[in-house]
Amino acid sequence: MDTPRVRTVSGMRPTGPLHLGHYFGVLKNWVAMQEEMEAFFFVADWHALTSDYADTSNLRANILEMVKDWVAAGIDPQKCVIFRQSSIKTHAELSLLLSMITPVSWLERNPTYKEQQQEITAKDLGNAGFLCYPVLMAADILMYQPRWVPVGQDQLPHLELTREIARRFNHLYGEVFPEPEARLTPAAKCPGLDGRKMSKSYNNGIFLRDSMDSAAQKIKGMFTDKNRLRKTDPGNPDICNLFPYHVLMADPEQQAEIREGCTRATLGCVECKAMFLKNLAELLEPLQTRRSFLDHNPDIVHEIIQKGNIQARKVSARTMNLVRKKMGL
Ligand code: TRP
After folding, report:
1. Tens of pLDDT along 116-128?
2. What angle do CA 17, 211, 43 make, to 5 degrees?
3. Which of 5, 34, 183, 258 has a beta carbon 3.0–4.6 Å from 148's, enabling a disulfide?
4. Cα(149) to centroid of ligand 1, in Å?
5. Is the CB of 137 under 6 A from ligand 1?
6. Closest residue CA from atom 15 of ligand 1
7. Residues 252-279: tens digit of each pLDDT
8. What is the pLDDT of residues 123-174, one digit of tens each?
């Protein structure tokens, strides 16, 4: 008998163009996982609405742009299922059903919820949809009965809630949902241009679609080791904002060469930045070639999503039949 392939599910909110932080923090991991297992990757457009409900003028464009970035980065529709959350209406149904068995107190004490409520003051996050964010996320995940969910550290409380909800469902209605496990993205340190976390809201990112000219401009303005004022001063790669990029992109030999050159004051920051730019071009150019093909062929992007939607619907229909039966509907 064939053993079913191990499954994985993950989603990303379409909030704008993807940057290197997304690439090294998420996409690289997804690309590896699509080789190993049956993978479902989706655009979490309903989740984008939980906080960005007031102005939705960019949503439709962001969805397509994000899928283009994914495919350009190597997420391969031949190897995984790429779909759009809002096209699979059963995610809403399952979310509703799971909300029946989820105590409000579980949602209110979710640390990510509390933190964002406090930190994001520019938007009113008192809406029910934002409180119920993790229930919808649990539905997204459990629908596909995956073994692994690749997420970043900040998503762990949500995943824990998913597991608790699954346990409660199984306890009340019988075994349906295996408890999924987090597959933590290996911590990829990818600081923004100013040394803070790379983030769209800080405007400190290098985007996957940045031209090499624009990337060169950004890199030129980057902080390095701020104690190193002249080339003849020895630098310290461990406090330099640029060096983490070499860790991500330079081969071990070049990394060693840079570390030595910096600490011995034989390699200046300008040359060091030139090395980064060259490595960046090697990474981004093939990606941008694929990207530009998709820009010129938007139908292909629509087809990828539509084909993925059909596959996701098939799997979700099976899960929902079981869920409805178990719940007496
Ligand atoms: N909350 C996730 C994030 O902000 C996005 C997401 C929605 C997700 N549903 C998911 C991730 C299901 C993994 C699985 O990054």
Report:
1. 888 888 888 999 9
2. 20
3. 183
4. 9
5. yes
6. 12
7. 999 999 999 999 999 999 999 999 999 9
8. 889 999 999 999 999 999 999 999 999 988 889 999 999 999 999 999 999 9
Q: Could you tell me which residues come within 8 angstroms of residue 106 by beta carbon, excluding any fewer than 6 positions away?
A: 161, 164
| Residue-level pLDDT at 2 | 52
CB neighbourhood size of 236 (10 A): 15
Q: Is the CB of 44 under 6 A from ligand 1?
A: yes
Candidate from 7, 8, 9, 13 with most ligand 1 atoms within 8 A of CB, to mutate: 13
Ligand 1 centroid–CA 30 distance in Å is 13
Cβ of residue 10 lying under 6 Å from some atom of ligand 1: yes
Q: Locate the ligand 1 atom nearest the alpha carbon of residue 140 and give its number.
A: 12
240 pocket-lining for ligand 1 (C-beta < 6 Å): no
Judge if the beta carbon of residue 140 lies within 6 A of ligand 1: yes
Q: In whole angstroms, what is the distance from residue 79 CA to residue 35 CA?
A: 7
Domains of the chain: 7-190+298-327 (3.40.50.620), 212-291 (1.10.240.10)
| 172: three-class secondary structure by DSSP | helix
| 88 contacts 313 by C-beta, under 8 angstroms | yes
